[in-house]
Design a protein that fits this description.
alpha+beta; twelve-stranded mixed sheet
């Protein structure tokens, strides 16, 4: 068993490994079509008999470096043994100079992986729920007078979108600053729905965001509701609730049997709203941090 650094030639093999095993940890940042070898995306593979048996991938883009953290795109060993994880960890630690921590997510059913991470020094500090509901018996959205939901305009609305997201979630633990570059990359995801990004306007002022993507779940094609962000001055007006209902209605109109979303555990206000709107807990993901020793 040896650890090798990712090359352009074995990117397809890494993507295949990610697709096979990422559901155990964090599927939210797959290597997309534009993924390439570079200092912002160090990846190491664990190889045995020319077969990939593990992968460790860090995200070190500027928005992560500016908060002195890095997110694990993947940190997984198929054989599930401590030594394999240790070899992978030692490789990616070569890229963590100047960072205060690295972090990643594990689906709660995989306690064997969590135990190994903990033995390596990771600590669980926060969690996120995946919530789900069907598209039956939903309430149609009804925004207050003067508000209009419009489709995101490429090349025009990037700054508006980023400003709202950063204002709405800037206080949240784990938030990484949204930038036009990140937004551009986000829209390359095959799950992206053309026209699925929306901005809510109050007359001439953009005040909230909504994004809808495709999600395959247990053999069904669902809609994933993302980025319900409401600018601070416009919170408490029922806008988030009606954006949520917009997503549910879209799914129903498109024939999807259900919708999913993710919510941070500490965001109790949002979680309570989702529960009142008929969502139920589907899965729990715990976020583990490894502090860098000085």
């Amino acid at each position: 068993m040896k650890v090798v650094k990712l090359t352009e030639n074995n990117i397809p093999a890494f993507k295949s490994y990610f697709k096979q095993f990422s559901h155990e940890q964090d599927e939210s940042n797959p290597p997309l079509d534009d993924f390439t070898v570079g200092e912002n995306d160090p990846v190491y593979l664990l190889v045995k008999d020319n077969e990939i048996r593990g992968a460790a991938a860090l995200m070190l883009h500027p928005e992560y470096r500016e908060v002195s953290q890095a997110r694990l795109r993947m940190f997984h060993a198929a054989d599930g043994d401590y030594l394999s994880y240790l070899k992978l960890l030692n490789s990616i630690l070569l890229h963590t100079s100047g960072l205060t921590s690295i972090y990643g997510f594990i689906e709660d059913n995989y306690s064997n992986i969590a135990k190994i991470w903990e033995d390596l020094g990771f600590e669980s500090r926060r969690f996120a729920w995946i919530l789900i509901r069907d598209t039956k018996d939903y309430t149609k959205p009804q925004f207050p007078e003067g508000y209009e939901l419009r489709t995101f305009r490429e090349g025009i609305d990037e700054e508006n979108w980023c400003n709202i997201i950063n204002d709405a979630f800037g206080h949240s633990l784990g938030h990484v600053r949204m930038t036009p570059e990140r937004l551009k990359h986000w829209r390359l995801d095959p799950a992206y729905i053309d026209g699925g990004m929306k901005l809510l306007w109050n007359d001439s002022v953009p005040v909230a965001t909504l994004s809808l993507t495709n999600e395959e779940h247990k053999g069904e094609d669902l809609i994933f509701i993302e980025a319900i962000g409401v600018a601070g001055d416009y919170q408490g007006k029922g806008l988030g609730k009606n954006l949520l209902r917009t997503g549910i209605q879209y799914a129903a109109d498109s024939g999807s049997p259900g919708v999913m979303l993710s919510v941070n555990g500490e965001n109790e206000k949002a979680a309570d709203m989702y529960f009142r709107e008929g969502f139920k807990k589907e899965a729990l993901y715990k976020c583990y941090y490894l502090d860098m020793k000085n």
